[in-house]
Design goal:
This protein is 26% helix and 26% strand. The protein is α+β, with helices and mostly antiparallel strands. A five-stranded antiparallel β-sheet has the order 1-2-3-6-7, sandwiched between helices. Strands 4-5 form a two-stranded antiparallel sheet. The protein is globular and about 45 Å long. The structure holds ligand GNR and nickel (II) ion.
Length: 164
């Protein structure tokens, strides 16, 4: 297993739209294992393949409390969104920045596991927020896109001073 490098905002590669996975092979299994290792090393509670410059629809999540966790999702799709919830979010690609974002409160997601078996799962709370955050990465979006222009500029200025 390998810890991969995480891209940082405003790297344009974070804007790439991920492609669907079509082969459930050993390479996919290695990608999932590397993503877990990279997420735990960071440490973070979720990671999208986009963040390690792999543009395939693969996300991993481990919010700790939820059962069963850790989770991985291949080709995830949100098939139900209900309610609105505000939560303070962070992102490994936007280090040191924490802002409140509105998202659906509860979700239903359809995805495949690394063996190609389809499943559906309902989630709420932190797990639901995290899954929505990761799926947005696969679309080339970041949580800071939802903030005002003023805040976005301030964040880019702050990140440029981090020198990482
Ligand atoms: O580690 C992470 N914490 C987090 C906190 C609130 C909402 C979303 C997240 S995901 C983030 C890891 C990350 O950047 N995933 O893409
Ligand atoms: Ni993120």
């Amino acid at each position: 297993m390998t810890i991969r490098e995480i891209l940082h905002h405003p790297d344009e590669r974070l804007r790439t739209k991920a492609e669907s996975v079509s082969k459930y092979d050993g390479k996919l299994e290695t990608l999932v294992a590397d993503m877990f290792e990279t997420m735990y090393a960071a440490p973070g509670i979720g990671l999208a393949a986009t963040q390690i410059d792999v543009h395939l629809k693969v996300i991993v999540v481990d919010c700790g409390k939820q059962d069963p966790c850790p989770l991985h999702f291949i080709n995830p799709e949100l098939i139900r969104l209900e309610g609105i919830e505000q939560m303070e979010e962070g992102c490994l690609s936007v280090p040191g920045i924490f802002e409140t974002v509105s998202r659906a409160e509860s979700i239903k997601v359809r995805a495949f596991d690394k063996c190609g078996i389809q499943f559906e799962m309902e989630a709420d709370g932190l797990l639901a927020v995290c899954i929505q955050h990761e799926i947005e990465h696969l679309e080339g979006k970041l949580f800071v896109d939802m903030l005002s222009n003023f805040k976005q500029k301030r964040i880019i200025k702050k990140l440029s001073k981090l020198n990482i």
